[in-house]
Design brief:
single chain; about 350 residues; alpha/beta; TIM Barrel; three-stranded mixed β-sheet; 11 helices; about 40% helix
Length: about 350
């Protein structure tokens, strides 16, 4: 009798442990998380040129089988100044309203889909570090930012733009002023019927408190993988497993697909590492097409088969090769490099 009770106790204990593990296991691939592959965004981040297009840049976009472009109106704020400046004469043609309108018109004529992504530049700093000293300054800046967003939202409505990005990498602003962002999104929804996202930096997406108000978790996906000059693709694929696992869990937690609002690599030694540091020393680093192409190929190989990955927008693409900063060979663009063939290979699959 004692032995029978002992066995029964063991079976009950095993049953309890298994039931507990099943209940605690993360739910994967729920239908609310899945993105159909036909909806995946094969995108390019279009760099605003300094002057009007000498030639229609859209055939080159379609030549790499891209179906989307990110159009980026730029504004700027200055450290110590709570105003938002945009559409000024000091800015390039492609950053101002007239350039944005022409870009949208040509993209629509070419049957390309569009993410309109108004973006702020902070000279000498980064938008993630943007903060202001007092309530009055914050309110002035937020009013200016909302006007900036809504002026270009008018174009999103006018041109039937498919996707609108409400902000990019505002780490401290989102932390300190989340209600501003929540109200901004609510007001955008009243005027715009397309999809919405926000572009979080790769290391901050888990701290955004308003994903439930948006359609995509947007990430500027500059995850550092390996700092070797030219790492093997297998090494990079292995390095991707931690971010992949984290985002797999996160997308089911928030029940939103993951979109890479930006992704890409400089064309230099070590570009699978910390590109934001490499940028500061770009003139001292060797160009490396193999490293760039390998990093891009590894990214696609890891992410392509995940239905909850909505694709993304490679950073960056120069229309007619205008608008670069003097080092296009080392810059992020894949144009005219080995990475362009990799991009076309993957974009042609769907």
């Amino acid at each position: 009798m004692y032995l029978k009770m002992n066995h029964l106790f063991k079976y009950i204990l095993i049953y309890i442990i298994i039931s507990f593990l099943i209940q605690c296991a993360p739910v994967q691939n729920s239908q609310s998380c899945i993105v159909d592959k036909t909806d995946r965004m094969h995108g390019l981040s279009f760099v605003a040129p300094p002057e009007p297009f000498p030639n229609n840049p859209m055939p080159a976009v379609k030549a790499v089988d891209a179906a989307w472009i990110a159009v980026i109106p730029y504004g700027y704020s200055l450290i110590g100044d709570s105003k938002v400046y945009y559409n000024t004469e000091r800015q390039w043609w492609g950053e101002r309203r007239e350039g944005i309108e022409e870009t949208l018109r040509l993209a629509k004529a070419a049957n390309l889909k569009i993410m309109l992504k108004p973006q702020l530049y902070i000279p000498g700093s980064w938008t993630g570090d943007w903060k202001l000293a007092d309530e009055a300054s914050w309110l002035e800046w937020e009013n200016g930012y909302e006007k900036f967003i809504f002026d270009f939202l008018e174009l999103a409505v006018q041109f039937d733009v498919e996707l609108f990005c409400v902000g990019t990498e505002f780490k401290k602003s989102v932390e300190q002023r989340p209600e501003f962002w929540r109200k901004l999104i609510l007001n955008i929804r009243k005027k715009y019927k397309g999809k919405l996202t926000y572009a979080a930096n790769w290391d901050n997406y888990q701290n955004i408190p308003f994903w439930e108000q948006l359609d995509f978790v947007g990430i500027d996906a500059y995850f550092p993988l390996n700092e070797s000059k030219t790492p093997d693709k297998k090494i990079l694929i292995k390095a991707w497993q931690k971010p992949l696992s984290d985002l797999d869990s996160f997308h089911c937690k928030v029940k939103k697909p993951i979109l890479f609002t930006e992704f890409g690599y400089l064309c230099v030694d070590g570009c699978a590492g910390k590109n934001w540091i490499l940028e500061k020393n770009i003139n001292k680093i060797n160009q490396n097409e193999i490293a760039q192409a390998t990093a891009l190929d590894a990214l696609f190989e890891v992410w392509w088969e995940n239905d909850w990955w909505a694709g993304g927008f490679i950073w960056k693409w120069f229309p007619n090769m205008r608008g670069h900063e003097g080092y296009p060979g080392k810059d992020y663009t894949p144009q005219g490099k080995a990475a362009e063939n990799i991009l076309k290979k993957w974009y042609s699959l769907d």
